[in-house]
TrEMBL record:
SMART domains: DEXDc, HELICc. GO terms for molecular function: ATP binding; catalytic activity, acting on DNA; endonuclease activity; hydrolase activity; metal ion binding; nucleic acid binding; RNA helicase activity. Keywords: Antiviral defense, ATP-binding, Endonuclease, Helicase, Hydrolase, Metal-binding, Nuclease, Nucleotide-binding. It comes from Methermicoccus shengliensis. The lineage of its organism: Archaea, Methanobacteriati, Methanobacteriota, Stenosarchaea group, Methanomicrobia. InterPro entries: Cas3-like_dom (IPR054712), CRISPR-assoc_Cas3_HD (IPR006483), CRISPR-assoc_Cas3_HD_sf (IPR038257), DEAD/DEAH_box_helicase_dom (IPR011545), DEAD_box_RNA_helicase (IPR050079), Helicase_ATP-bd (IPR014001), Helicase_C-like (IPR001650), Helicase_Cas3_CRISPR-ass_core (IPR006474). Residues 494-650 form the Helicase C-terminal domain. This is CRISPR-associated helicase/endonuclease Cas3. One of its GO terms (cellular component) is cytosol.
C-alpha cells in the first residue's frame, strides 16, 4: 500500500514519485486548514441551505480521501512508473464506479459527492466518459483498494478531524466491472439528477451546494499536487519516493485580515455621508454616485463589513472591460497587498507578466512564466480573498462557460460581488445581468450594483429587492458644462480651438465613436501641432501588450501639461485620469456621462479659472449605436446644455431610455438550469470570435478576431506567436479580405504537442503609435 503511486514529477531526467497515501494526506491537510479558517463561513452556508454541517464536513473528508481511488489499478500504476500517459484509464471515472454502490449517505437527495469525484479532472457534462471505446478495461487492485478504504479511520484520527465530526469508517465494495454495467451506472446517475431537478426545481440550491462542495475538493486536490511539484523543484536529496510533504497548508487557504476597516480603505479621510450609509447597508444594495466621489472606497467599506457580518470570505469586483479590471487591480494591490488580490480576464496573463518584469532580467525565465500561470489560474477560479475580473467571466461561471467554471462558481458561493458601472453595457448584456442578479438573490450571494448614471428602467427591474443609496451631495455638483454643436469635430474651427487650448497649457481629451475617426483626428492634430507635441492615441486595436504600455504611458504623460489624448470610448470607464476640456462625438447619455467623468474629475463646479466643458459634435454616422437610440439622443441633447450635474445626466438617461424594456429573464436562465450539475461541454457554450456557440454575453453585431501584425512575425518568427502580440480586429475585415481576395491576412500553423495551433497574420502596416494602417481599404465600421 505504501508503494501505490499518485503523482510523478520529472527534474533533470530523474523521476520523483508521491504515494497515493502521501498525496491524499496533503490534500486532507489543506481541507483541515480550510475548515479551521472558514468555520463561520461553512456554518452560515449550511444554515442558509438547511443542510447538516457535520454530514457536509464528513462527506467532504470522504470525497477528498477517496477522490483518487481510481488510481488503484494495475494499469495506472504501471503507466505512472514508466511515465506513460494514462488517458485510456480515466481514474476519476473508475473511482466513481468503485464508489457508486458505497457512497449512499449523501448531504442532499442526489449524490453530489460522487458527481464531484467524477468531475474532478474534467468538468461535468452530459457526454463525459460516454464513449467506452476510448478506454481500456481496468484491473482493479482489490487488496490495495480495501486497505486504502479501511485506513480512512486512521487518517481521520491522525489529522484530528474528530474535532469537527464523528466518523467510524467507510464500507467499500468492489463492483464487478463490465462496460455495459459502468455505462448503465453513468447514464442512470445523470438521469437521476435530471429527474430530481425537473421534479423539485431546486436549481439554485442544488448548484450552490454542488459547486461549493466541488470547489473545496478541487482546492485540496489541485494545491496538494502543486505543492508536490514545488517541493520537487527545490529538493536536493537522494530520495525519489515520498509520502506527504506539505507542512504549511494555511498558505493554500488565504484569509483577508483587516484590523481597522475604515483606516485601511480611507486612510485619514472622513467618510462622506453616502459612504457611511453604505457601510451598514444590507446584502443587496445599489449605489448611485458620480465619478470621482469615492464609489470604490464606499464599495470596499460595504464589502468588508458584509464579509464579517454575513460570514463570507471573498470579494469579487466585476468590471465592464479588461482595461477597467487592470486599473482596479493596480488600485487594490496598493491597498491590500499583491498576495491578497487576484486578476482574471481573457488577457490578464499579459498584465501579470508586465507587472512582474524586472528590467535587468527580462522575461525569459521559465520559472517566472509558471508562477504567472499560477496567478492567472487563481484569478480564474476566484481563489484569493479579492479578485478583479470582468462581468463576462462572472456570468460564464454560472453556465459552465469555461473549463473551471464549476470551481469558480463554488468560490463565488461565499463571496460578495461588486458590479461596477452596471449601466455600461448594450442591451443583450444588460438582460443577462438582470437575470443574473435574480439568481444571486435566490442564492443569497450579497452584491452591490454601482453606477454614476443608474437609469430608471434598471431600478424598476430591481425594485423591492435592493436598498438604494445615493450620494445626494455629489449629484448636485456641477463639475462641467455641456455644449452641443451641429458640426463635426473635424471642422477647422474646432481643430483650431483644440490647438489654442494646447498652447494655453490645457489637458484635453477628444473621444471619437470609431477607431478610424480617432486615427484621423490624431494625425490631423499631430500635423497641426508638429511632432514634438505631447499627444497620444488610444483605442482597442493595439496589441494587448501595447495597450498595457499605452495605459502606463498615458498616466505618465498626462502629468506634463499641455497634453492631448485622442481615443475611442475604450477610455470611458478604463482610466482614472482627468482633463480640463473634452471634445466628444454624440453618443448615448450614459456614455456621455461616463466620458464626462474624465472631465474635471473630483471637481464641484465647472468654472475654476478654466471652462470645463464637454463639447459634443455630430459624427459622420450613427454607428456603432443603434439608429433609433441615436435619434433619441440627438433630439434630447438640446435640453441639457449649460452647467450640468450628474443628477441631470441621469434625467437625460431616463428621458432617452423611457421606452426601453429589457427581456428578463434572458436565455441565461434556461442555460443555467440546463447546466446545474451536468449539461453542455464548456467548449459548446463559449463564443470565440468567428464561431458563435450556444451563449453570448455581448451583442455580436461586431464580432472580432485576434491577429498578429506581420511586422512582429517577420521580426520574431514563431517566437512572436504569443497572446501579447495579438490585436483584435472586426471579423468583417477578415471576411471581406477572403471575399475579395485582397491577401491582407494569411494563416500560420504551429504544432504544439499533438495539436495544431493556427494564427492569423495581418499584412496591414502596424505601429505602436497608431495601430494598423488600413489605408483606404477599410470602411469606418469599428467601434472601440
Amino acid at each position: 500500500m505504501n508503494e501505490t503511486l499518485a503523482k510523478l514529477e520529472l527534474k533533470n531526467g530523474e523521476k520523483y514519485f508521491q504515494t497515493l497515501k502521501g498525496h491524499t494526506t496533503d490534500a486532507l491537510k489543506i481541507l483541515r486548514a480550510y475548515v479551521q479558517r472558514n468555520s463561520d463561513v461553512i456554518s452560515q452556508f449550511c444554515e442558509r441551505w438547511d443542510i447538516n454541517k457535520e454530514k457536509f464536513l464528513k462527506n467532504l473528508f470522504l470525497a477528498v480521501y477517496l477522490h483518487d481511488i481510481g488510481k488503484l489499478t494495475k494499469e495506472f500504476q504501471e503507466n505512472i512508473r514508466h511515465n506513460r500517459r494514462s488517458q485510456k484509464y480515466p481514474h476519476a471515472y473508475y473511482g466513481f464506479f468503485l464508489l457508486h454502490e458505497s457512497f449512499t449517505e449523501t448531504v442532499i437527495d442526489i449524490p453530489m459527492e460522487l458527481a464531484a469525484i467524477l468531475g474532478h479532472h474534467s468538468q461535468l457534462y452530459d457526454q463525459l466518459y460516454s464513449d467506452h471505446n476510448q478506454f481500456e478495461k481496468p484491473s482493479f487492485l482489490e487488496k490495495e483498494i480495501m486497505e486504502f478504504v479501511d485506513n480512512a479511520v486512521n487518517v481521520y484520527e491522525e489529522l484530528r478531524f474528530n474535532e469537527f465530526f464523528g466518523f467510524d469508517g467507510f464500507t467499500g465494495t468492489i463492483p464487478e466491472f463490465r462496460w455495459k454495467k459502468i455505462n448503465g451506472v453513468r447514464n442512470k446517475f445523470i438521469r437521476k439528477i435530471k429527474v430530481y431537478l425537473d421534479e423539485n426545481g431546486n436549481w439554485e440550491r442544488t448548484k450552490s451546494i454542488f459547486s461549493y462542495f466541488f470547489a473545496i475538493l478541487q482546492t485540496c486536490d489541485d494545491y496538494a499536487s502543486a505543492h508536490f511539484s514545488r517541493f520537487v523543484e527545490s529538493y536536493g536529496g537522494e530520495e525519489r519516493l515520498f509520502d506527504g510533504v506539505l507542512e504549511n497548508p494555511d498558505e493554500y487557504v488565504p484569509v483577508l485580515r483587516i484590523d481597522n476597516l475604515t483606516k485601511t480603505v480611507l486612510g485619514d479621510k472622513d467618510p462622506y455621508e453616502f459612504q457611511k450609509d453604505l457601510l451598514d447597508a444590507p446584502k443587496f444594495v445599489t449605489l448611485f454616485a458620480p465619478c470621482g466621489r469615492g464609489k470604490t472606497e464606499a464599495a470596499l467599506l460595504w464589502a468588508l463589513n458584509t464579509l464579517k457580518k454575513h460570514g463570507r470570505n471573498k470579494i469579487v469586483f466585476a468590471m465592464p472591460t479588461q482595461a477597467t479590471s487592470n486599473a482596479m487591480y493596480d488600485r487594490l494591490k496598493a491597498i491590500f497587498g499583491e498576495e491578497n488580490v487576484g486578476l482574471y480576464h481573457g488577457r490578464s496573463f499579459i498584465k501579470l507578466r508586465d507587472d512582474s518584469k524586472k528590467e535587468e532580467e527580462g522575461f525569459e525565465d521559465e520559472k517566472d512564466v509558471d508562477e504567472i500561470r499560477s496567478e492567472t489560474f487563481k484569478g480564474n477560479v476566484f481563489f484569493k480573498p479579492i479578485t478583479i475580473t470582468t462581468v463576462d467571466h462572472v456570468i460564464y461561471s454560472f453556465v459552465k462557460g469555461f473549463s473551471q467554471a464549476d470551481f469558480a462558481l463554488g468560490n463565488l458561493q461565499n463571496a460578495v460581488i461588486i458590479f461596477d458601472e452596471v449601466h455600461y453595457y448594450e442591451k443583450l448584456t444588460l438582460e443577462h445581468l438582470l437575470t443574473l442578479f435574480k439568481r444571486l438573490i435566490k442564492m443569497d450571494i450579497p452584491h452591490l450594483l454601482m453606477s454614476g448614471t443608474l437609469p430608471d428602467f434598471m431600478l424598476k427591474e430591481l425594485d423591492n429587492c435592493y436598498e438604494h443609496i445615493t450620494d445626494k451631495e455629489g449629484l448636485e455638483f456641477r463639475p462641467f458644462k455641456l455644449e452641443f454643436h451641429e458640426k463635426s469635430v473635424f471642422d477647422d474651427e474646432v481643430i483650431n480651438e483644440i490647438v489654442r487650448g494646447y498652447k494655453k497649457g490645457l489637458s484635453q481629451f477628444a473621444i471619437l465613436n470609431t477607431v478610424e475617426r480617432a486615427k484621423q483626428l490624431y494625425l490631423r492634430l499631430k500635423e497641426e501641432l508638429k511632432d514634438e507635441a505631447n499627444i497620444m492615441l488610444y483605442h482597442s486595436q493595439f496589441t494587448y501588450s501595447d495597450r498595457v504600455k499605452k495605459e502606463n504611458e498615458i498616466y505618465s504623460r498626462i502629468k506634463n501639461k499641455p497634453f492631448i489624448l485622442v481615443a475611442t470610448q475604450v477610455i470611458e470607464v478604463s482610466l482614472d485620469i482627468s482633463c480640463d476640456v473634452m471634445y466628444s462625438e454624440l453618443a448615448p447619455p450614459d456614455a456621455l456621462g461616463q466620458r464626462a467623468g474624465r472631465l474635471n474629475r473630483k471637481g464641484e463646479t465647472w468654472s475654476n479659472g478654466i471652462e470645463h466643458a464637454l463639447k459634443i459634435y455630430m459624427p459622420e454616422k450613427h454607428f456603432p449605436y443603434e439608429e433609433d437610440l441615436f435619434e433619441k439622443v440627438q433630439s434630447a441633447v438640446g435640453d441639457y446644455q449649460g452647467p450640468m450635474s450628474y443628477k441631470e445626466v441621469k434625467e437625460f438617461c431616463d428621458k432617452v431610455y423611457a421606452d426601453y424594456a429589457p427581456e428578463v429573464p434572458s436565455d441565461l436562465l434556461s442555460l443555467f438550469k440546463r447546466c446545474t450539475v451536468f449539461g453542455y461541454n464548456w467548449r459548446d457554450i463559449t463564443f470565440d470570435g468567428e464561431e458563435g456557440r450556444r451563449f453570448r454575453v455581448r451583442d455580436d453585431r461586431i464580432q472580432h478576431v485576434d491577429v498578429i501584425p506581420e511586422c512582429i512575425y517577420e521580426e520574431e518568427g514563431d517566437s512572436g506567436l504569443k497572446v501579447q502580440n495579438m490585436a483584435k480586429i472586426p471579423l468583417s475585415y477578415l471576411m471581406r479580405d477572403r471575399r475579395e481576395g485582397l491577401g491582407r491576412f494569411y494563416p500560420v500553423e504551429v504544432q504544439k504537442g499533438r495539436r495544431t495551433k493556427t494564427y492569423r497574420i495581418c499584412r496591414h502596416p502596424y505601429s505602436y503609435e497608431i495601430g494598423f494602417d488600413y489605408g483606404a481599404e477599410i470602411d469606418d465600421m469599428c467601434i472601440i
